[in-house]
Amino acid sequence: MRPKSGTNFGNSHGAGILTLLIGALGGLSFTFFGLPLPWMLGSMAATALCVQATRLKLSQPKRWRGYAIVVIGIMLGAGFQPEVIAGARAWVPSLLVMALLSTLFFIVAYLAMHRWGNMNRLTAILAAVPGGFSVVSVLSDRYSADTRRVALCHSARLISLLVLAPIMIRWVSDVDLASATLQVFSAAEAFDPLQHGALALVAIISWALGQRSRLPSALLLMPLLLSAGLHLTGIITAYVPVSISVVAQIIIGTSIGVRFSQYQLSQILHDGWLAMMIGALLAFGALMAALLVARLTGAPAAALLLAYLPGGAPELGMVALALGIDPAMVSTHHVLRVFMIVAALPSLIRLSTTLTERES
Q1: Is 57 helix (H, G, I), strand (E, B) or coil?
Q2: Is residue 158, in this structure, part of any structural domain at all?
Q3: What digits encode the pLDDT tens for the residues 215-228?
């Protein structure tokens, strides 16, 4: 089925700026109404609505998302302070639970996609993977999967997780979601040319290393590791300026929203609706697990919830940063999940191919 027709601005920087402006208006609207995570959810909602309700086909240069992910990696790395690392041993039980949950989540999502989504095995496998979209998109291009359906399912599930995350956090913690963004602005540190210049250098080096690395999610992992090491040793003590953080959130939000320009409403209602329902089911599973592990270990339930939600390492890491919910712990869980996905997917794809050949 062909995508919607409309006014196409291509992948130019002009189209990207227009997309960011629409995303920023969405963020301002969410801020005005006191809605949580305004810059990411507001920009996502504004662009998704715009591409579906109008004839505009918004786009964003691919590199811009990469730049935003590098910024997020640096921000997450800054959360690795000495006192955080001292308590990192307490994460081991939670990491084991995350691994088990991710496996269970994958099985549930795969069975639902294969049975009710009318997908072949390979497409259902890639659509059901709990995160690692960049890795999954490469594999879906390489094999005979329906790439557009895989992308739609991941995007729709991520939207359901991002929408439900603030609601569930309010249930399990006393985080004031409505004022979290304003608190970040009020606590902004003064500009330090030396310290912030060092952060800019870390960003440039991370981008160069990430572009050349074959590691999964390298654009997130490289700045995270460099920033963590420099903050742990005290060489750098500064944080990413709030204004740059906001721009990164808008880029991440709009990068999700513009994906929906590729689909007709009927496709969204079929695959997208199913993926959102699966995402909601898995989110409640993550909530139950977080409450149980929090009771057994004493770890904060809100951080466990963000760590267990199945997908979107940059996006959920950004949620943890925006709300100040233990970003080091959350990012560690999601990075480990990405490595699990990379390790498991080749075997799953081979199994799928073998079963399909036997049936034919």
Answers
A1: strand
A2: yes
A3: 878 999 999 999 99
